[in-house]
Amino acid sequence: MNFSTDIKYLKGVGTVRAESFHKLSVDTVGALLRYYPRTYEDWSKVCTIREAPLNENCCIKAIVSDTPAKVRIPGGKMLAKTTVTDGIGLLNLTFFNNKYIGNMLKEGEEYYFFGKVTTNRYGAREMVSPVFQKTPSGSGIKPVYPQSSTLNSKAIEKCVKTALENFEQIPEFLPQSVIEENRLPSLDFAIRNIHFPESYEALERARNRLIFDELFALQLGLLSIKNRTHTLKTACVLEKDYTDEFLKCLPFELTGAQKRSIAEALNDMRKGEPMNRLLQGDVGSGKTAVAAALIYSVAKNGWQCALMAPTEVLAEQHYRTFVKLFKNTDISVALLTGSLKAAEKRAVKTALSQGEINLIIGTHALIQEDVEFSRLGLVITDEQHRFGVAQRSSFAAKGDNPHIYVMSATPIPRTLAMIM
Description:
- This protein is of the alpha/beta class and 420 residues long.
- It contains 14 helices and 16 strands.
- Helix 7 packs parallel to helix 14.
- The chain is elongated.
């Protein structure tokens, strides 16, 4: 197994769960290991029940006194209660809608419980819906991952652990001299400790190494662009700027920054070399209007545009927005997502291949092999949603080196490095 192994071949994943990972832009084992936790829970410092701070997350090691008793409450919901002890204090536990809790917590067995300790009206200490793991495996600093409706943090954690077990040593890519000069830990240490830190000190060292890698990759990319000879050409060379015509269609005035961004991008698209530009702006700053202006000029010059969104919900939102923006123009807009009916997909793909669609908006469905463009000139993605290099570059095969426009609210070093 290596970093490029398809995620579905990892033990415990399979085809169905792989689809859930794809929604998080995780399609390979390497992408999974680079899917870092958003925060951590400190299970390394165990408190006694009596000394646990109130209304703060903490970890308690205790033995289950009774098998959880389940009762139905108004509304059809299930409530389960039990008591645990650490030999000195008692702690009441309450769980909602967990019909398997009786099998998960065994009377007389010891567990780690993580959550907020509160007191009830009688002054007794309690935890509501704590996270728990059996001792001794439950202690330590636990990762918490960005999750989805079909894939929770605990499931992701389990898959990451399985992936790491398949690597005796994660291969290094930095020269040893660079590692020593900058006092960096190995990549193997960094990847393992960003997911499962041995200590907070180890976590900080892992972060520093991975931050260095991102900045290092960015610097290499910048130097590569600076020193390269401009041999890559694009067929999409714009002959006319239709910005003024588009602005007359808008019910509002664009800002100076928006107009400047449009002008700079269109200037790039007149040079004969494929544009590769990042548009940075906070949420609500008007990046969509800039993209619409570029799409208008590209379409009026006889080329097609593609806008790729990470989810069907966002793709549909973009679709409604652009249909409204181009309502009084002759720019045709279409939507292509996985949930469309087979007949609808075929109709859209046929129209796209015949050049009847000026702007196609969709998810990863846009980069499937059977999606063909007549004259693809511009590809737009939103980098804050973590599109991979391979996903974006696959568009190049669907056109003659189309222009790439990336929109981002927060251009972190990793974002810029991937663009390079």
